[in-house]
């Protein structure tokens, strides 16, 4: 591939990490925050550094066709939706993509080595696991309360939400938790409670946050699924992440935001039979 | 990260590429096929090599909790859904992940270099573009005809499909085509009609297939959007890919399957006001 005309961005090792995300909810930004928190690496976070109005404006300006290009600069393609990460001159978006970039830098995933090398295969396997969890436990979870349109409120699509949620809780949630269980039980998971390679990676932090969100949104269903014993490895991993010293401190801090109008919402009526 | 107990898979340069995907529709497998076809690199394809029943059985066995582990072998984590790619001992899934692996091998994307290097940034930018197109023009497109449950037929969720499609065509489709237009018009796209870096990459093949699918599914809406002139760069890219000699040959061949019961479906009633 030929080089683009513009100078490629370089992320300096000394540059600060800046997370740009909506305020007042954990949302997709949380999957990024957990890496910094586990690694004990400083980062700025629009949701923490600015008041909610200013943080929201910053996100809106970033994704706006008018102002977005100036904000990302000439060496990055436009960003359609948050979260975004700024690191030096680099601005990237899409949660699994941000994690792919950060994980090796924070010791939470293999380096992206030569494309024929061993490390690359581990990185691709981890990316595969995270993309699958993201499909089922983030994107599909979001659509339980927004099955018709993101431009409508939940209240404007309640009958459709009720139908979609019933199928989600009966079919999809067990399917994706069962997938996570299979990954943990596979030979590739190695020793310990983790998904892959015998030590904690960003995929484990990702699954932790998915399970935590599901426990908040659908507590009765999750209690039944836990009691079934079929997902023991998943809940064991969840508990193990929760007890990591840095994660424990983070969850008790005011940096950990309460669930609100994000992906994981608790509408008790959606869980009723 | 420590090494897993099991031997890591190695993909041999001499090993054949094997695509495992549902027969009788282009589906998500098409995003993989287009790379091989453009590059002129041989591959096997369950949808082509086997009769439909045998091809479907092969996919079902791969994703089954009972037989899947044996099929992927001890050095790969389980696969939840097709497409999957086998290359030597390696088996990977998730469309954007398969493309990330294949693109540098087929000359359709930068090598995944050192994580601080320039090439990695280009790979991450391309991955970001593909993940965004995948969200809006594949996953959300699929849900226009399946807004309630994948376990139900379209006919069982027609009223919900009608509502979701209206919002999709009015709000989401223009949003994502507008995003593609902005990417092509950004400085990072370089010379020529392409999305990134001044030459054809796998992201361009991805966008081509999205637009082709949308043209099939919603011809009236796409005609209006084309006529608006707001997405000229997108349609120019679409036309440019379609005229690539290898792609042109492929589209005229019987390897290119007709649209059917996949992501892109043409239900005329969904497009009516």
UniProtKB/TrEMBL annotation, chains A, B:
Residues 119-261 form the GST C-terminal domain. Coiled coil: none annotated. GO terms for molecular function: glutathione transferase activity. Keywords: Transferase. PROSITE patterns: GST_CTER (PS50405), GST_NTER (PS50404). Residues 16-110 form the GST N-terminal domain. CDD domains: GST_C_Sigma_like, GST_N_Sigma_like. The keyword Cytoplasm does not apply. GO terms for biological process: glutathione metabolic process. It holds the Pfam family GST_C_3. InterPro entries: Glutathione-S-Trfase_C-like, Glutathione-S-Trfase_C_sf, Glutathione_S-Trfase, Glutathione_S-Trfase_N, GST_C, GST_superfamily, Thioredoxin-like_sf. PANTHER family: GLUTATHIONE S-TRANSFERASE (PTHR11571:SF263). Belongs to the GST superfamily. This is Glutathione S-transferase-like protein.
């Amino acid at each position: 591939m030929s080089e683009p005309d513009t100078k490629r961005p370089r992320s300096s090792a000394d540059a600060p990490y800046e997370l740009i995300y909506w305020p007042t909810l954990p949302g997709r930004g949380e999957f990024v925050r957990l890496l910094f928190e586990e690694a004990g690496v400083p980062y700025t976070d629009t949701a923490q550094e600015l008041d909610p109005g200013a943080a929201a404006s910053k996100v809106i300006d970033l994704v706006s066709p008018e102002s977005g290009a100036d904000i990302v600069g000439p060496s990055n393609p436009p960003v359609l939706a948050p979260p975004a990460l700024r690191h030096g001159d680099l601005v990237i978006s899409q949660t699994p993509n941000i994690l792919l970039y950060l994980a090796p830098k924070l010791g939470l995933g293999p380096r992206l080595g030569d494309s024929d090398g061993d490390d690359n295969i581990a990185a691709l396997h981890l990316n595969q696991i995270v993309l699958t969890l993201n499909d089922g436990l983030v994107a599909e979870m979001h659509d339980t309360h927004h099955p018709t349109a993101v431009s409508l409120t939940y209240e404007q699509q309640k009958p459709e939400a009720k139908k979609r949620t019933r199928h989600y809780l009966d079919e999809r949630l067990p399917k994706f938790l069962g997938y996570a269980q299979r990954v943990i039980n596979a030979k590739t998971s190695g020793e310990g409670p983790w998904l892959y390679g015998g030590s904690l990676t960003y995929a484990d932090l990702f699954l932790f946050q998915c399970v935590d969100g599901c426990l908040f949104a659908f507590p009765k269903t999750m209690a039944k699924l836990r009691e079934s014993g079929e997902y023991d490895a998943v809940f064991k991993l969840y508990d193990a992440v929760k007890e990591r010293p840095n994660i424990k401190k983070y969850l008790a801090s005011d940096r950990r935001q309460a669930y609100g109008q994000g992906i994981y919402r608790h509408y008790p009526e959606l869980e009723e039979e």
